[in-house]
């Protein structure tokens, strides 16, 4: 049997509002991540939110790759700022859990991909900062980055820079993506380069210059992989790297 990569997906907590147990906490992740990994011949494992370092360490020891999934805003105190009025919902528990997860994944040198919040978390973890809301960018060319409904629709272009991993994966200078973010990278972390940007100059993808497969994208490839071949390429690249 061909070896299958095991890909961990970070998850979140959701509070049940109605049903049998109002106020009850549940561990969850959007199913698209799971489907995308399986479609690429790998095995997904949802990593539940916990602050137990030993449990996280053990979980990461089972993995070949880690996806940091989308979700809440990162607490601005993590990058030395007080919260501004347009900051969204934050979760200090999830920040702490994913910081430990990322630290362990880096220590084990496995493939790491950040998606949306995941990209932002990587940037903050590595010492970069975020715009707490796109309004704080004071950018008159700013595109619409919250497209609203239909996650599988492509709504803006990103330009993929030369000599980057992403360019190698997509093999073209420009692709169209979906977009669901109200924050963006401000100061880029050291030892990272911008691998894609939208026409308003906003950073849409980054990659490490130090580690082999450690990158993030601001869009949601898992929501469009069924319809667009070039998104599948990104997951296939990631899964192949995880196997090495
Ligand atoms: Mn965008």
What would your notes on this structure say?
The protein has helices at 31-39, 53-61, 92-107, 117-125, 165-170, 229-243; strands at residues 6-10, 12-15, 25-28, 43-47, 65-68, 111-115, 130-131, 156-160, 174-177, 184-185, 192-197, 203-208, 214-217. By secondary structure, it is of the alpha/beta class. The longest helix is centred in the middle third of the chain and has 16 residues, at 92-107. The strands form three sheets. It has a nine-stranded mixed sheet with strand order 4-1-5-6-13-12-11-8-9, with helices on both faces. The chain has six helices and 13 strands. Bound molecules: manganese (II) ion. Manganese (II) ion binds next to loops.
> Based on helices, strands and strand pairing, what is the structural class?
alpha/beta
CA-based gyration radius:
17 Å
Our measurement of the CA-to-CA distance between the termini, rounded to an integer number of angstroms, reads: 17 Å
Overall pLDDT metric: 95
CATH architecture: 3-Layer(aba) Sandwich
Main pleated-sheet profile:
9 strands, mixed
For this entry, give a set of tags.
244 residues; alpha/beta; Rossmann fold; nine-stranded mixed beta sheet; binds manganese (II) ion
A few lines on this structure:
This protein is α/β, with parallel strands linked by helices.
Question: Topology of this structure?
Answer:
Layout lengths: L5 E5 L1 E4 L9 E4 L2 H9 L3 E5 L5 H9 L3 E4 L23 H16 L3 E5 L1 H9 L4 E2 L24 E5 L4 H6 L3 E4 L6 E2 L6 E6 L5 E6 L5 E4 L11 H15 L1
Parallel strand pairs: 1-4, 1-5, 5-6, 6-13
Antiparallel strand pairs: 2-3, 7-10, 8-9, 8-11, 11-12, 12-13
Helix pairs in contact: 2-3
The chain binds manganese (II) ion.
